[in-house]
User: Fold this.
Amino acid sequence: MYSPDKLPLLKQSLSMLARQLRPQDRVSIVAYAGSAGLVLPPTTGDRQGEILAALEQLQAGGSTNGGEGIQLAYAMARQAFVEDGVNRVILATDGDFNVGTVDQNSLETLVADQRQSGIALTTLGFGRGNYNDALAEKLANVGNGNHAYIDSAQEARKVLVEEMGSTLLTIAQDVKIQIEFNPAQVSEYRLIGYENRVLAREDFDNDKVDAGEIGAGHEVTALYELTPTGSGADRLPPLRYGAQAPSPAPGLDNEVAHLKLRYKRPGEDISRLIETPVRASQLASAPGPSLRFAAAVAGFADLLRGGSRFDGWGWDAVLAEARSMRGDDANGTRSGFEQLVQDARTLVDPDATAAVSR
Assistant:
């Protein structure tokens, strides 16, 4: 935790958050290096000097007793619990937990039990090396919270200042999305990404199955690759016993898909359903800048996996698409993505030369 991208960045990040606190807010700080200890008891947000001083006292230790630290953090959250307020534990970690409760299933059970009491869990990852991103994301998922990886002061400001509402204020729980494509319009489809979020079809209507949370102002983008029926662009060979594309049911010939969304309001146990058809007449003839940039991000992710799923999308094509869709980019997020692509390219394909100039 000594390196600049670990404890020093953690202090800087949480200091940004502390400066956003209001007098009615309460915060406590728990350290869990070796053994868990209380650094700051529940303190109101207007005592920022005390909060910042407590952050500055944090020191790196050897072992990481995350389980005991989480238990103490939840105890402090229960002590300072605000009825009808936002009650949340923020777990900042640079790696695996290596003493105390280290079994992932036990940690998930601990977090899931506390979730029932109305205290959510957000995880923030720092640094490289033994950092366990999968564990941090899983704990946030079962804790009705969210997860972010902080690698710079710019990212910390984005997550904890600019997007503080979506990071800390949950407005919908157990959000599930299900889409059914009309085979008369779509012969093949593929969801890009979200492999660790896929639910069984029967779990969509089951309110006992946990799903993701949505924060205030939070946006989620899901990309599907579609093959229009009769286009001749099918990737898969026809099935020996497969049927021909069915004729559309009466009144459904203009529908491309049917979208369903289930969610629970905070504190409720029964989900609410929103559903709507997606009609061909609603589709744009060309994607907008945000969707095109999202496609570039998806193409980059595919390149990191070996580049086997997107025909014709090499490093140059991804960079060209990202640069052409940069737009205003007031906070530098999109230009930062371009730099990330270039840095990754030198690691994944060091012999290649960039064919696209700035």
